[in-house]
Design a protein that fits this description.
about 25% helix, 6 strands, about 120 residues, alpha+beta
Length: about 120
């Protein structure tokens, strides 16, 4: 039976869990909610990169991405940053939906599941 390894464990949630060869990230949001959709998306993707690196993997190993936008009108702005970040030839399955996020200043939240390298 595989052990579950948790990272940045808090009272309510962990930022990441690893089980077997799979890495599960919590929803990542921008630290600076005052930035526009491009700035927030860059922050979120940098946080994803950092967490995946801690687990020993990277964005080329993402199995699934779920993107939540506070306003679907930001879809093109988010995509312009995403398209520059995602590894060519390794674009993961993805869903993007409009959703009310936990804080009004957040414009984007991204959840990913990845394989270990």
């Amino acid at each position: 039976m595989s052990e579950i390894q948790r990272f940045d464990v808090g009272a309510r949630m962990s930022e990441m869990a690893v089980h077997g060869a799979t890495v599960y990230l919590a929803g990542q949001v921008a630290a600076d909610g005052a930035q526009d959709i491009g700035g927030q998306t860059r922050q979120v993707l940098a946080a994803i990169d950092a967490l995946l690196a801690r687990a020993g993997t990277d964005k080329r190993r993402i199995l699934m991405a779920q993107i939540f936008l506070a306003d679907i009108a930001d879809f093109a702005g988010m995509n312009s940053v995403w398209d520059g970040w995602v590894a060519p030839g390794h674009t993961p399955p993805r869903a993007t939906v409009q959703a009310r996020l936990a804080k009004p200043e957040w414009k984007v939240e991204i959840v990913v599941t990845a394989a270990l390298a």
